[in-house]
Every structure is written in structure tokens, then in C-alpha cells.
Design a protein that fits this description.
By secondary structure, the chain is α+β, with helices and mostly antiparallel strands. 24% of the residues lie in helices and 26% in strands. The protein has a domain at 34-133: PH-domain like.
């Protein structure tokens, strides 16, 4: 799933520094909106792995290492515009500082190191969801007061 998300975000070509330098991708190594360590539950084998996360331009990337350069290849990416919710999940996982990120297809779980980091990630991802989700345009707003035939 992560590979398919990566292809969807970056285009059909390989995830490479060349694609990024050609303007087809996000320069995740430059001026990220948020970075930090989180524990992420594996997609298939449900073990917890510590990963370095980078939030930039509506995408949440993760890496094995905190040194991220133009040559770095993300282990995965989530386009936040496809996310429905981001919220605390301590009660679901029975672990402190846990939160979840839900898409129409799946729910991913993360664990921060502190309550403040958890809240900061939830707020940053939530802001990014709002900024990058498709908003309603004026043409799509239905005026229920104006009905055909009313004058």
C-alpha cells in the first residue's frame, strides 16, 4: 500500500532524486513544515518501528534515518488530502501518546515520545488536511432558498 501511495503522489515513475529535481515531487529535505521521530505500526506485520517523519506540502513522508537529503528515499508517504481524521488513540491501543490517521481504506497508528509531541503532530497534520483537502467552491454551494419557478 505504501508503494502504491508513493506512486500516486510522485507520479508513475520511480521514486528518485531525479524526479524531484525535475519538479515532479516534493522537496521533502528542504524547509519541512514538521519533522520528528514517531513509532509507526507496520502495514502487514503489526510490529512497531521508529521512523523519522517529515510533513511537507500535504504529504507525510517517513524515513529510517533523521538525516534527510535530496538522495533520501522515503520508506512511505501518505497524501494527507486523502485522510479523513487524525485523533488521539490511547484508548484504542492502550498506549500513552498514541494517535491515529484514518483514510477511506485504512487507519494507521503512531506513538509519539511525549503528550506535547502527540498534540503537535495531530495539530500539524490536521491543519495540513484542511489546507490540502478539496474545498467547496461557490459554484457547488446549493442555494435552498432559490427553487426553479420562484420569482
Amino acid at each position: 500500500m505504501a508503494a502504491s501511495l508513493w506512486r500516486a503522489v510522485m507520479g508513475t515513475g520511480a521514486a528518485s532524486a531525479e524526479a524531484d529535481s525535475a519538479g515532479g515531487g516534493v522537496e521533502f529535505w528542504r524547509f519541512p513544515e514538521r519533522t520528528g521521530w514517531l513509532n509507526k505500526q507496520g502495514e502487514y506485520i503489526k510490529t512497531w518501528r521508529r521512523r523519522w517523519f517529515v510533513l511537507k506540502q500535504g504529504r507525510l513522508f517517513w524515513f529510517k534515518d533523521s538525516i534527510v537529503t535530496s538522495a533520501s528515499v522515503p520508506r512511505g508517504v501518505i497524501p494527507v488530502a486523502s485522510c479523513l481524521t487524525v485523533k488521539g488513540a490511547e484508548d484504542v491501543l492502550n498506549r500513552p501518546f498514541a494517535f491515529e490517521l484514518s483514510t477511506p481504506r485504512e487507519t494507521m497508528y503512531f506513538i509519539a515520545d511525549t503528550e506535547k509531541e502527540k498534540e503537535d503532530w495531530i495539530n500539524s497534520i490536521g491543519r495540513s488536511i484542511v489546507q490540502h483537502s478539496r474545498s467547496v467552491t461557490d459554484a457547488e454551494v446549493v442555494d435552498y432558498d432559490s427553487r426553479p419557478g420562484d420569482k
